[in-house]
């Protein structure tokens, strides 16, 4: 039963029961929107009335698959979940090949999978074909524009063009939460933090029940090292979606980022592991910020995880190598570092320009003591994802190269990169996290490192 609720008093101001066949669901949706508008004493714009009168799909089964995919997409950025959603979008378009919004969802998920480091040319091709199909079916549909622009941003790495596409679409649909959120991706890549935050703020007002705007606003705050404000936004995101793995992970890592409090981060992760899927959270922590944030028991759990639980090739193997190295088991540490090397090299044959893969490869080679090859790969990762071109993703490549130098004992080169990271907005390191990172353990007594990170 749809109802209109006064959020200040919690009382219902309007409700109605609709007893109609399921085949009339789209008509009912339009009717509900119209009656809500009447109750609020607002007039729907002609474009909105037209959009509401149109059926998104001619198949209820296709629409059901689409809605289930959207529900998954709203939960998390985890690749495994994205693949589940993509499979549902594919099911939807097989049932209804004219379903433009489902084609758009299929494109977006494959673009996101591609950029997370697990993607292959097939993901890029699917993203492009699905976006083109969506646009051909519905050129003015916000979902179609969003998918096409995201493809240009994430796959083609043309963020200037992506922003232009979004701005043109927002000129026609200025109150579209989807477009307002979509434009923030290329804006953040271009380092346009204030504009991205403003667009996210508008989206949050237009769709206050969606956790994603709060989550990304928290991300912008973290990038700007505004830790208190980041915490508030992550908490708001979690209040809207208690299972959001990204929000849980970010809230847990904040203590180590803010003040180097590794114990507090580990305690937060212990609490969180009782509320969400343990494998997903542990794998997310390892991929996003590092296995070393886990306590001993959580590291032991990581050692039992399947490698395909991790979002990118080699991350699971490399994490195991780190845990064993910390425990003094050099034989297993070396074996898993080599397993990581093999896994990444296999992926690099099909995705040679993926910076994330080169970063992982560099760290695996450094763990194996292959100094020159590790440095070469680390530099390649930076070349493929320079901060000047990608202000959001580029710092991860710089940190990986710094970790390579730290592992190899090339202190001055590591310190130069650390200094460069701390001078820019980024969300992969902070003075506190650098003090706790085992890659820089041998630097902790270095006076320059202490000055840079505020160590006592």
Provide structural commentary.
69% of the residues lie in helices and 2% in strands. The protein has helices at 25-39, 46-53, 60-73, 79-95, 100-118, 121-137, 142-154, 159-172, 177-189, 193-206, 211-223, 227-240, 245-259, 262-272, 278-288, 296-304, 315-326, 330-348, 355-367, 371-384, 394-408, 411-422, 431-436, 447-453; strands spanning 3-5, 12-15. It has a two-stranded antiparallel ribbon with strand order 1-2. A hairpin with a 6-residue loop joins β1 (3-5) and β2.
Query: What sort of overall outline do the alpha carbons produce when their principal axes are compared?
Result: globular
- Shape-level CATH architecture of the domain at 339-456: Alpha Horseshoe
Radius of gyration over all CA atoms, rounded: 23 Å
> Could you state the oligomeric state of the chains shown?
single chain
The helix count comes to 24
**What is the CATH homology-level superfamily of the domain at 339-456?**
Tetratricopeptide repeat domain
Order of helices and strands: EEHHHHHHHHHHHHHHHHHHHHHHHH
Strand content: under 5%
Order of strands side by side in the largest beta sheet? 1-2
